[in-house]
C-alpha cells in the first residue's frame, strides 16, 4: 500500500482546519466501508487513520517552530468537537499558507508522494542504518552488512524510535480491536508498538482482562499471541488475529513488514476459528488451510 | 504533406511528393504503397498516414503489425479487429496513471480477457503482448499461452490480478518465448516454481526479467536456461540469486546487454570476489545495470570493470552514500541514464555532475518517503550540481524536501533542453524555503526556457500564476500532473486554453471546479484523458459535459459517505466504443 490516510476532519473552532473528503484509498469505493458513527470517529480523532484523506489547507501550514509543536497540533485534534466529512466544505485551499508543516505533510496523504506500491514495499524492506551518524567511507566498509530489518525484531527499528523521540513521528494510531462474541471493543495505539510481538502481548493483556473471557480461552489467547506466527498461520489455535486493510479486505496479521502493516491497517479483529462471526466455519477454516 | 512522413520513409519517398489528397486514385499500385508504408513503425506516423485519403487509410491498415492502444477503453477489441487484419504485436494500457498511487479503487476494470478472446479469433499469429496497468488473472494467462502458438513476448508492467501460476502457464506452453518481462505488478508470488516450467527445448529466450518477484527460483533451472539460451541479452534476476550464483550466470552469458543483479550482499572469499570481478569484466556488451538489492557497498568495486561501457545505471534500490556513488560514477563516464536513491545526498549528486558529462536522464527517489526529517535526502543543491555538469540533461524525476525558485531557474538555464520535468517536493504545498514565496516562478522558468517540454509534474505551493505560465509558454506540453496546487478555476482554464498539444491531464486535490471543467469541453476530444479527483467538481457539471460531448466517456466515482452532488473522482476520456460495459457499480458513466 502506498500512503496512509489521514485523520478525520473538523470545522475550524480551533485555529486548525481540516477537511475530510472521504477520499477512500485503494478499494474504498468498491468495498463500501461503512462510515463510522460520528461518536466513534470523534473518539478516534486523536490520530486515528481512518479512511479519509485530508486536504491540507492554510491552517495546517503553521510556521515550523519546532517539530514538537507541529506534532502536538495534530494530536490536539482530540479537542475538536466535530467530525465533518462534507466534501463541499468549501475551503480547499486558502490562498496564503504560511511555512510548510514540519511533519504533518506528505506521509498523511493518500497516494503521496507519488511512488508505486512496489517501490514503497521495497523501501520498507530495506535495511536501515542509523542516519544520525556521520558516515565516512572507512566506516561504510565496516558497517554491519547483515542488519536486515527483521520485521519481528523490535530492536532494529531505530529510525522509528529516533524519529519518535524527535517528535517527528506522527501521533497515535489508535485502531479498534474487536473480539468475536465480545460486544465491547477496545482501542490500541499501534504507534506505541514497533513490531508484532509487543502488539500481540498488549492484546493478550487487554483481552484477558475481559470478564467474558474464561480461563481456557485466556490460555489459548496466550498461546496465540505469544507464538503468533506459527499458531495463527497453521490455524491450530482457537483465535486468529486479523485486520481490515484500506481496501476493506480482512487479512491475517503478520504477513507483511510492520511498517507496511501500519500503513494499511484500519482495525483489528480477534476471530475465533471455531465459530468465526460472520463467516461460515468452513469458510474460515478453509481460508486458513490455504495459507 | 505531413513533414514527419518525409523523415521516416527513408527509402522510396516519392509518395511524399505525390499529388494532394483530393485525388482519389493514386499513381502507385496498392502493393507499392503498402510496401512503402511497411517501413513506418511509429504509430503516430501511421495515424497521420491513415488520415491522408482512403487509399492510404486502407494501405496503412493492411500493413500495420503493431498496435498501440493508450487507453484500452478508447476503442473496443471488435473495432480494432475489423480495422487491422494483420496485427502481430499489441501494447495495451489500462487504468489511469493515478491508480499506481492507490487513487483508483479495486476492481475498476481494464481486464484484458475480452481482448484476448477477440485476438484469439482474429490474430492467431499474435506474437507480442505488452500490458501496462491492466488487470488479468491466471486464467487469462493460460488462455494466452494456449491460444497463440507463435507467441513470443510478454511484458507486464504495473498490472494486477495474476499470480506466478499464470507465469507457469506461459513458461510451459509458449515454446518460442523470446521475452518474459515482469515488472512491478500487483501479483501474488506463490513461489518460484514457474521458472522450472520452461521446457528443456526452450532456447529462444532473449529477455528474462523477474527482478520484482521475491520467491526463490531453482538456480539449477535458471542456470540451465541461461546456458542454452544463447541469444539472451537481457537478464534481470531477483533477490534470491546470490552473488556467486550471479557470477556463474555471467560466465554463461557474457553477451548480456542488460543485467539486473540479485542480492548483492554476501560474504565472498577473495577468490570468489576476484572471480566475480573477472566475470563482470568479460561482459563487454553490458550497457545497463540494475538490481542491487540489499544494503551493501562492499562488493561494488567488482562492477568497476563493467562501468565504462554502461549507459544506464539503475541504483534506485541501493541505499548508497555519496562516497560510494562517487566511486561508481567515476568509473562510468558514459552514463546516459542514472537512477539513484536520495541516500546519496547532494554530495553524491555533485559527483555525478562532475563525472557524467553525457547524462541525459536523472531520477532521484526517496529512501524514506514518509519520514519528515529534513536532514536527509537531497535538496536543490544536488540538482543544481548535476545541472552544472550535465548540460545534456533532458529528463528528470526528482524527489526532495526543499527547493527554491532561484535554483530551478538556474537549473533550466543550464539545461534548457528538458523534455520531461518532474519535480516532487514531498510536502504538499511547500514554499520556496529561502524566500517563503510560492514556487510559481520555478515552474514559470521551466516552461519559459524549456520550449521542448513534453511532460511536467508540479509540486510545492502554487497559485494560478503557475498555470498562467504553463498556458502561455508550454506549447509542446503533452502531459501535465497537478497536485495540491492552484487557487481558482482560472488556473485550469489557462492550461486547457493554452496548451495545444495537451493529451493527458491528471489533477488531484486542487480547487478547480465546474467552470474549469467545462471550459475544456471542446478540448477533451483532442486529449487521451482527464483525471480530476478531490477537486470541486459536481455531478451536474459532469452530466452536462457528458450530454454535450457524446464521444467522451465521463465516469464518476463517488467516495464513501460523500455528498450526492459531488463528483469526487472524475475520469474523462475520448472513445469510439461508447460507455464501457464492464464498469463496476461504483463507476457511474454519465
From TrEMBL, chain A:
GO biological process: what's one of them? auxin-activated signaling pathway
Instruction: Give me the stretches of Low complexity compositional bias.
Output: 1-22
Q: Where's the PB1 domain? A: 172-275
Where are the stretches annotated Disordered?
1-42, 67-110
- Pfam families attached to this UniProt entry: AUX_IAA
> What PROSITE patterns does the database record attribute to this sequence?
PB1 (PS51745)
**UniProt subcellular location:** Nucleus
SUPFAM superfamilies, sorted:
CAD & PB1 domains
Annotated InterPro entries: AUX/IAA_dom (IPR033389), AUX_IAA (IPR003311), PB1-like (IPR053793)
Q: What GO cellular-component annotations does this UniProt entry give? A: nucleus
Keywords, A to Z, come to: Auxin signaling pathway, Nucleus, Repressor, Transcription, Transcription regulation
Family the entry assigns: Belongs to the Aux/IAA family.
Task performed by this protein: Aux/IAA proteins are short-lived transcriptional factors that function as repressors of early auxin response genes at low auxin concentrations.
Oligomer status and interactors: Homodimers and heterodimers.
User: What's the protein name?
Assistant: Auxin-responsive protein
From TrEMBL, chain B:
Keyword vocabulary terms for this entry: Auxin signaling pathway, Developmental protein, Nucleus, Ubl conjugation pathway
Q: Where's it found, cell-wise?
A: Nucleus
Report domain F-box positions.
28-69
A Gene Ontology biological process noted in the UniProt record is:
SCF-dependent proteasomal ubiquitin-dependent protein catabolic process
GO MF annotation, one: auxin binding
Q: Which organism is it from?
A: Olea europaea subsp. europaea
Matching entries from SUPFAM superfamilies are given as: RNI-like (SSF52047)
Q: What Pfam families does the annotation carry?
A: F-box_5, LRR_6, Transp_inhibit
The cross-references to SMART domains, in alphabetical order and at most eight, read: FBOX, LRR_CC
The lineage's top-level taxon is: Eukaryota
Q: By what name is this protein known? A: TRANSPORT INHIBITOR RESPONSE 1-like
Its annotated pathway? Protein modification; protein ubiquitination
Gene3D superfamilies assigned? 1.20.1280.50, Ribonuclease Inhibitor
Q: Mind naming one GO cellular-component term on file for this protein? A: SCF ubiquitin ligase complex
User: PANTHER family from the entry?
Assistant: F-BOX/TPR REPEAT PROTEIN POF3 (PTHR16134), S-PHASE KINASE-ASSOCIATED PROTEIN 2, ISOFORM A (PTHR16134:SF148)
Chain spans, region Disordered:
1-24
Biased-composition ranges for Low complexity? 10-24
